[in-house]
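[Discussion] Sanity-checking designs against the backbone

I'm trying to build intuition for which residues belong where. Below is a structure token string of 211 positions. I'd appreciate it if someone posts a full sequence so I can compare it with mine line by line.
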């Protein structure tokens, strides 16, 4: 996809490699997406940057006080995150934006390592069902004992995990969801407003199980 470019980016040099996470290393909020967009993060080299999903996400983060600006166009656009870190279940742009199980398995160690390093995380926002499942699998692989019954995905669904860590589900801000009205601006903003309230009300966790 980095070689077979769309017309509007035909003169742009694509990143075309695995896209790392991005944000505040002391973050208490962790946002987990699905994968880099073919002509977004795969082009710019920064997660949720240069596409419509990123516009939706960073606007909500800015309003909630986690980002210094509401847009993200490229790696040098001046965007800074405060108390927030963003990553994805899959690190490379999958064909048709549908990662295969083997891709999720191969990328899981990276998500697990980030969770281990981000030891102050208290709220995890999973964008979409696949990211929600990837979070649960990474936490479990890191030694976190999940509640029974296993948390199910739902928009606005809150699951309290290890030592006060909260997993919060949200529909993914894909154009398929935002243009059809399945996910509105107000619905998405509500997720990050809730995340902010949860950061105030939940105890400080000990993420030792992932280290």
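Best answer:
Here's mine. Compare freely.
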């Amino acid at each position: 996809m980095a070689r077979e470019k769309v017309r509007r980016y035909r003169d742009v040099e694509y990143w075309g490699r695995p896209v790392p996470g991005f944000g505040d290393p002391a973050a208490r909020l962790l946002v987990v997406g699905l994968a880099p967009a073919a002509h977004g993060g795969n082009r710019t080299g920064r997660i949720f940057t240069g596409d419509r999903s990123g516009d939706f996400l960073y606007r909500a983060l800015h309003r909630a006080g986690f980002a210094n600006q509401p847009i993200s166009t490229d790696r040098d656009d001046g965007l800074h995150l405060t108390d927030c870190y963003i990553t994805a279940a899959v690190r490379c742009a999958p064909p048709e934006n549908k990662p295969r199980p083997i891709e999720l398995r191969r990328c899981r160690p990276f998500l697990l390592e980030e969770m281990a390093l981000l030891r102050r995380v208290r709220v995890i926002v999973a964008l979409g069902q696949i990211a929600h499942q990837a979070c649960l699998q990474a936490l479990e692989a890191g030694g976190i004992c999940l509640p029974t019954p296993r948390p199910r995905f739902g928009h606005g669904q809150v699951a309290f995990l290890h030592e006060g860590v909260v997993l919060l589900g949200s529909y993914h801000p894909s154009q398929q969801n935002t243009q059809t009205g399945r996910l509105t601006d107000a619905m998405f903003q509500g997720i990050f407003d809730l995340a902010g309230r949860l950061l105030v009300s939940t105890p400080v966790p000990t993420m030792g199980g992932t280290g």
